[in-house]
Amino acid sequence: MNLRQYWARDYTGRPFVLFGTSHLAVLGVVAALNLGWLWLGPALDAEARLAVRVALAMGLLVNESIWHLWNVTTGQWTAQTLLPFHLCSLLIYLSAFMLLTRNYPAYEFCYFLGIGGASQALLTPEAGRYGFPHVKFWTTMVSHSLLVTAPLYMTLVEGFRPTPGSMLRVVAELAAYAVVVMIVNRLLGSNYMYLSRKPDTPSLIDMLGPWPWYIGWLALIALAVIGLLYLPFLFV
Length: 236
What we know:
Blueprint: H1 21-40, H2 46-73, H3 79-82, H4 87-101, H5 104-123, H6 135-156, H7 164-188, H8 213-230
Helix pairs in contact: 1-6, 2-4, 2-6, 4-5, 4-6, 5-6, 5-7, 5-8
């Protein structure tokens, strides 16, 4: 078996299949892990909870480092694509910060946008032709799985809760961040957060009309998702 092919840019192995066996296996593991916090959480003491938070944070940062290393070694790393201005890229570092420091403002942002954004990315990942067990398959799945898991862990085990004020702050922060990203895109000729054009690969954005109108729809969808994620706490 030639293990180099699983790191190669020109991968000739099995392509990624949406809702194929490997994709469904990842979704199943993520679902089981996060449902498991309901049972495991009460059994964890302070030392164990710290260990879990450190493990999740290190998982996010190590996985992101491998992703960048793969892009560097295969000649794909550019400032136009791999600076941390995509929302999920920002959330990787913010989630690690949240886990290590138990920072509540970071939790608010990660709860609404980490779960809302990364869960969609888990359901329709941009893995391209890189199926299991290529490194891009793993980095894509691990990053988005942990972006969902980190705020759920903080909610289900550490007892953090969003508030109505959380929703307002996250909406304002997201709008401000989008303005910053638009400026970055203009300066670099990049397409972070897909605010300059649609993704190059098929995605749900294709259903939302041409640029710039789909940006308005994305904003409305973000508001709806934030509202839905607050519903479990509405009567608590």
